[in-house]
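#struct-pred
JK: can someone run the complex with pyridoxal-5'-phosphate? inputs below
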Amino acid sequence: MSILDINKIRQDFPILDEKINGKNLVYFDNAATTQKPLVVLDALANYYGHYNANIHRGIHFLAEKATSAFEESRTAIQQFLNAKYKEEIILTYGTTDGINLVAQTYGRKFLKEGDEIIISTLEHHSNIVPWQMLCEEKGCILRVIPIDDNGDLILEEYEKMLSEKTKFVSVVHVSNALGTINPIKIIIEKAHEVGAKVLIDGAQAASHITIDVQTLDADFYVFSAHKIFGPTGMGALYGKKDLLNAMPPYRGGGEMIKEVTFEKTTYNELPYKFEAGTPNIADVVAVKFAIDYINGLGKANIAAYEDELLVYATQQLSEIEGLRIVGQAKEKVSVISFVLDGIHPQDVGVILDQQGIAVRTGHHCTQPLMSRLKIPGTSRASFAVYNTIEEIDKLVAGIHKVKKMVL
Ligand SMILES: *Cc1c(COP(=O)(O)O)cnc(C)c1O
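RT: done, structure tokens with the ligand placed:
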């Protein structure tokens, strides 16, 4: 049994009291976005209600208060990822934004025709398309690490791909579609042996796994606040200081400059060089409260409890006739994708929704992965710390109902 008081945790998330189609909400779509605890909602209201001001340039009281709250969040993220320097944390609009930033700055400056970029079959579209765009522009070659039928990367194939032509490796830490936890430390090590730089897409990992970018020796690491109980439209890019310093700016505008004349503009220092325009101040401020909330529960406690949910759900779902769990990797987070014989995932989603159960259906922004698995999509239940065994029982009952209604 978990040492966390799950009922008490549930009270921190007001949305869990919602009724959907007259039923208690069962929210199993946490891999798409997590719900927000009161501390985060209060932080947003408090910011707008009491110290809303534009940051950095103001000298009045509110501007300074907003600036220090904003920068405290940067420090919280630095600690969350165990980055060495605060200026290695670039505040972005999310994972997608962070990957595009690296592709469009590091990629455009340092990659050239014939260079190889390696991604994996498990990637989210946001870690595929920015690299394809770069390849199209620069004439680089995209290579893809294959997976086995369980949803594990085939590392021998990855090692065979690596050569002096490999200049960049960009892989997902945890698959949003299958839950696979990738051995990123080894992946990074091998890439560094041939001199390639590595970006890790941590969108799914950040809420489940303790991240230490220094131990991992990641060159870049990205995540989104909205998947760790924080607000939407906010995220962070970690980059090693020397790399970030060598990269040209991404967007031009206010904040990212030191001095502007019509002849020439000089750019601001890290991290501001990459933060043009007024940022998402309220959401940045609030993310610190999300991180504090996670730290308060303890990531190891969260992971242990989510694992209980995963084990129980895997057991219960496996017993349903005609149900196949897609993705049986050795190391997984609490994400279960499944298909039901003769039933389209869309129908599963609609009928579960009628019972108040929110799951995701479709390709989960991983169309190439679905093609590899030769399925159009799956139904996916993804669990967070506020979910319960009773809710999983409801899911199981719900799936039986789906079968009765469709078959
Ligand atoms: C959600 C997700 C993304 C995209 O995150 P955004 O917040 O939409 O930018 C990328 N990769 C993975 C693995 C994800 O789960």
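RT: quick notes.
The chain has 14 helices and 17 strands.
The longest helix spans residues 61-81.
JK: thanks, will look after standup
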